[in-house]
Amino acid sequence: MSSGSSVKEETIPAAGQQPKILIVGLGNPILGDDGIGWHVAEAVKKVLLVGGAENPAVEVACYSLGGLSLMERLIGFDQAILIDAVQTGSGKPGSLYDLTLNDLPDLSTGHLTAAHDTSLQTALKLGREMGASLPSEIIIVGIEAEKVYDFSETLSPEITASLPEAVNLVLKQLNKLLRRSSQSLTV
Amino acid sequence: MTRITIDPITRLEGHGKIEIFLDEEGDVENTYFQIPELRGFERFCVGRPVEEMPLLTNRICGVCPEAHHMAAAKAGDAVYGVDPPSAAKKLRELLYMGFFFTDHTTHFYALGGPDFVMGPDAPVAERNILGVIHKVGLEIAGQVLQARKYGHTVVEMLGGRKVHPCTSIPGGVTKGLTEEEREKIEGMGEWAVGFAQFSLDLFGDIVLGNQEYVDLILGDIYSDRTHYIGLVDENNKVNFYDGKVSVVDPDGKRLGKYAPDEYTDWIAEHVEPWTYLKFPYLKKVGWKGFVDGNDSGVYMATPLSRLNAADGMATPLAQAAYEKFYETLGGKPVHQRLAIHWARLIELLYSAERWMELVTDPEITSPNIHTVPTKVPTEGVGIVEAPRGTLTHHYWTDERGILTKVNLVVGTTNNYAPITMSIKKAASSLINKGTVVTEPILNMVEMAFRAYDPCFGCATHSLPGQMPLEVTIRDVDGEIVNVLRQFC
Question: Is A170 an 8 Å CB contact of chain B?
Fold first, then answer.
């Protein structure tokens, strides 16, 4: 994985049609394993382009955001796949998790956790109450991270090794969403 | 009290920790506030071109990338000894007003507001932005999101990206403003001034109209007589982007002002054995421990500090709000930490008014936005006010502009000592022998630190997305008697 590319932040707008599914790589690309979400998203993007599986309904982005700001980026999409580093404290580095938002603790229902922001769950509730068009389904692909406190553009070896499998998991989830989407379109 | 040793290995657990130690009587003996530190940034930067720093440093923090972007650009100007054209400085400052407007709005409504709107002892499930919205109305929620959107739009138009701007470089900026863009930003700015006034009115109705809250703000629980610092312009008015750092003592007397390259004459760092993070203090006053008063070099750098360290605000509506602030709170300086929330709203109004001043400045659409650096790069310091306090970037390079050394003093680091003191004072006031420590009491301890809106090395965004804070209470034997962590 080229380290130089990871400092860029880019979005691939699909031509012709309003994107309906957003794939987001989350994390900080200069903070070691915290950048794994970006690496996976960039690899997924390449597969979609090179493999001929490009679909105008799919957009891929990389963000270093959470809470309210992330919620604001999800507006207008029907479904979303979030790819991010996870620290369960018990998993082996590189372990993959197929999660939903309900699987994650809602850390800022009070104040103790969020120094500057609210949780994504709370932000989504807020957005929906405001009538924002937010994804009805949010899938999370988590990768157990090891080093997220040391500045580095390099991933730990175990995390790097898990990259192809993580990409496959994202593509599998994407296909699932696309199939469901096309079914609903025919209806 | 039993000897307290906190194993360094446990220092970095990915969350902020408040440890409260009780004595034999059950009163608070001491408190510790620990912030995990992200490691190795200076090392990470060495060997890179200095012009990369505005891009790299805005990845340090997920909350205020724009502040690091600006400080890095200004340090880059200083390294190359280049003075950007006037229009470039105004464009940077306009971007910065959009950022401040967004950040201060979010803090008040999502973070500070719940304690006042819902009350410090409201049920946890309601003490959040959703609770605020339900209480004050959905229409206001729409305005909060609109405010964020407008601020983001200004950052995107001038910074080249939705987040993490990329247009400031040594010598100026890479992107100017078209007349069409300018008109859009002006329209949004008019709305922003109204929204800021509305927010101040809301604070007046909800907080100042409630004697219980006024007593809470004015009470001794949340007060420390420290020194204050903040950036001021040539008229000693608050400025976020440029100027000198004004330093005032606990009586409000100005001890002096320092230019960015003089910061090491004024600021030194104290080391404690229980934390890796250092405690900056005023070198000319000296470190006397975690105590307040004129002889203690502990200083604070927050919205309240900026107001205390300045002679006023540079825009008319914010100046009127500034005067009302000091009249209401009994004169200057104000030491009550919960007043930071009010000061933040006065700054919100200033940012909106300054936004309008800049966007209506005829020079703002000038194409003269960059001065090509021609001098041999050496060393430079850039200072801006980040929403959470004075932000200093100091770079050293070789003759090619390749970084050889980097030093950053960030907002929360400035405030580490006063936050530690505020927590101890709140805990000591609220937890005494026989106190049943409830969640609302711990929340009130936490309010002492939340007013500062500290950064917990927030560059990390691994799911579930936030750095949690843990409050632990230990008895005289060091045994844990109560822990508050999450609400799940």
Answer: no
Give the 3-state secondary structure of residue A4.
Answer: helix
Please give the pLDDT value at position B12: 29
Place of tokens 């090395």: B457
pLDDT in tens, B189-231: 999 999 999 999 999 998 888 888 888 888 888 999 999 999 9
Residue A113 has pLDDT above 70, yes or no: no
**Sheet containing strand B254-258, strands side by side:** B254-258, B244-248, B227-232, B299-300
Q: Assess contact for B31 and B25: CB atoms under 8 A.
A: no
User: Per residue in B436-464, is it b (16+ CB within 10 Å) or e — as a string?
Assistant: ebebebbbbbbbbbbbbbbbbbbbbbbbb
Lookup: tokens for A20: 């309906």
Instruction: Decide if B443 and A110 are in contact by the 8 Å CB cutoff.
Output: yes
Question: Is there a contact between B464 and A105 if contact means CB atoms under 8 Å apart?
Answer: yes
Boundaries of domain holding B323: 224-335
Residue finishing a domain among B335, B363, B386: B335
**H helix runs in B256-383, sequence order:** 263-266, 303-309, 316-328, 339-359
Protein fold of A10-186 = Rossmann fold (3.40.50)
Out of A31, A105, A125, whose CB is closest to B459? A31
Cβ distance B128 to A148 less than 8 Å, yes or no, reads no
CA distance B393 to B384: 9
> Is residue B203 assigned to a domain?
no
Q: Which of B309, B335, B361 is the last residue of a domain?
A: B335
Q: Please give the average per-residue pLDDT across A164-178, as a whole number.
A: 93
Q: What is the pLDDT of residue A187?
A: 30
CA distance to partner chain A, nearest, from residue B186 (Å): 23
Mean pLDDT, to the nearest integer, of A52-76?
Answer: 83
CB contact under 8 A, B456 and A120: no
B143 Cβ contact partners less than 8 Å away, ≥ 6 residues apart: B195, B198
CA angle B313, B248, B349 (to 5 degrees): 20
Distances (CA, A) of A83 to A38, A100, A187, B418: 8, 11, 30, 38
Inter-chain CB proximity A112 and B471 less than 8 Å:
yes
Question: ipTM of this predicted complex?
Answer: 0.77
Angle between helices B86-106 and B339-359 (to 10 degrees): 140
Give the pLDDT confidence of B164-189 residue by residue, as tens digits. Answer: 899 999 999 999 999 999 999 999 99
For chain B, what is the domain count? 2
Residue A40 to residue A6: CA distance in whole angstroms: 11
Q: Answer whether residue B387 is part of any domain.
A: no
> Average pLDDT over chain B, rounded to whole?
87
Contacting residues for B481 by C-beta, under 8 A, at least 6 apart: B22, B437, B473, B474, B475
pLDDT band at A184 (very low <50, low <70, confident <90, very high): very low
Decide if A107 and B466 are in contact by the 8 Å CB cutoff: yes
CA distances from B43 to A122, A152, B55, B282, B404 (A): 37, 10, 16, 27, 9
pLDDT at B466: 44
SS3 B160: coil
Residue B298 in domain: yes
Q: How far is A182 from chain B (nearest CA, A)?
A: 30
Q: What is the pLDDT of residues B415-466, one digit of tens each?
A: 989 999 998 999 898 888 877 777 777 778 878 877 887 765 543 334 434 4
Higher pLDDT, B222 or A106: B222
Q: Which residues, given as ranges, of chain B have pLDDT below 70?
A: 1-16, 36-39, 61-63, 124-125, 455-470, 484-488
Q: Which residues contact B151 (CB under 8 A, 6 or more apart)?
A: B98, B99, B101, B102, B103, B105, B192
Q: How far is A153 from chain B (nearest CA, A)?
A: 9
Q: Is the pLDDT of residue A10 over 50?
A: no
